[in-house]
Amino acid sequence: MRCDRAVDLSYRIKYLSTINREVRMIAIHDIVEKERISKEDLVHLLSIEDEEAVKTLFDIAYRIKGENVGRRVHLRGIIEMSNICVKNCFYCGIRKDNKSVERYTMEEADVLASAEWAYKNGYGSLVLQSGERTDETFVSYVEKLLKKIKKLSRGKLGITISLGEQRADTYRRWFEAGAHRYLLRIETSNKELYRKIHPSDHKFDSRVKALKDLRETGYQVGTGVMIGLPGQTMKDLADDIIFFKENDVDMIGMGPYIPHHQTPMGERIGDFDIHKKRNQLMLGLKMLAVTRIYLKDVNMASTTALEALSPEGRELGLLAGANVVMPNITEVSYKANYTLYDGKPHKNENMDEAISVLEEKIRGLGEDIGFNSWGDSPHFYSRIQG
Ligand code: SAH
Ligand code: SF4
User: Fold this and answer.
1) In the chain, which ranges are E strands?
2) Cα(332)–Cα(160) distance, rounded to whole angstroms?
3) Which of 83, 89, 128, 166 to mutate to test the pocket of ligand 2 (most atoms within 8 A of CB)?
4) Confidence band, pLDDT 50/70/90 cuts, at residue 351
5) Which of 84, 85, 127, 207 for mutating ligand 2's site (highest number of atoms within 8 Å of CB)?
6) CA dist., res. 246 & res. 216, Å (int)
7) Index of the ligand 1 atom closest to the CA of residue 254
8) Which ligand is nearest to the CA of 138?
9) For residue range 53-62, what is the model confidence (pLDDT) as tens digits?
10) How far out from the chain centre does Cα 350 lie?
């Protein structure tokens, strides 16, 4: 008799949880169909934990991606041209005060060789990234590189730069030399959290102004955040997504925060175990999905930090709504010294093999690759058409 009652109770619990699950699924669909998704809705979507509901969220984001930017992946070969940085962000492995980093600036010939490789292999565009420097030697070196890359590709390679905060005249010089997209993450839209993860001379308001200056110079502007920072809440992440919309950005490059053991934040956080890695990965993927649902037509990268957390991270990002992949094409001898966070992949791989493996993986998802085209976001086109 007691046994029957126990069976009955467990049956009822199972039945109730099935109903709960159905209610949750209906809630996701209801939110997505809304004309105006509220901040509370974004928090609700980001907080979904149930495996099946998370899958539904990713499927919806994937459908919305197909409808708005197509099932086509754009490749940007990233060249990490220097790890010298004048800044001291508390989370970053190449911050100025990390004395164990061997500093480098790539030789011009090496940068151009990587650019040429990208061009010959049908990559539509490049990303030049580095630590932050504002001195004239660096500014004019970048200017010269941009002109030479344009020349070697007969104007065909698109160039994104991700070189930190600069003066407005520097943005203009680099734009005139051939760069047409700029990636500068806001890191977090929560001013207080921004203050906590940076030294006092790094100002949130200057970052916001930099994004505005870039837009006025004529760049397609990309920004992004680190996801899963210590002290960051779901409300903060929802605000980040709203920040992207309010600033009308064309591209998003965001990824999970991963500690680096030689940084003030990495030292504090202790072990980053399998459980924490999985949580960061899932949160990163949910953030991609919810951003796709909310912003629809922007370009959004499936970033290396996802790959650092799982060998399939990059593909999972594409399935959660991203449509850009940035394979690292930096000459291998430099890669290990550009370690922004622990576990950042810097495989000693044959580039020709790596690209065919990547192509195969992307095709395996049922997507194609936008070879030989810049792959600008539909958002950019609708923005310039007013
Ligand atoms: N110096 C430039 C570009 C290089 S850093 C800049 O700061 O814009 C590029 C990005 O790496 C940063 O925007 C930051 O979001 C990311 N990054 C740095 N440390 C990281 C960490 N520990 N985990 C995840 N992302 C990190
Ligand atoms: Fe320098 Fe960029 Fe790292 Fe900050 S995040 S320390 S600016 S490389």
Assistant:
1) 72-82, 125-130, 158-162, 181-183, 220-223, 226-227, 251-252, 255-256, 299-302, 324-325, 368-369
2) 21
3) 89
4) confident
5) 85
6) 16
7) 15
8) 1
9) 999 999 999 9
10) 24
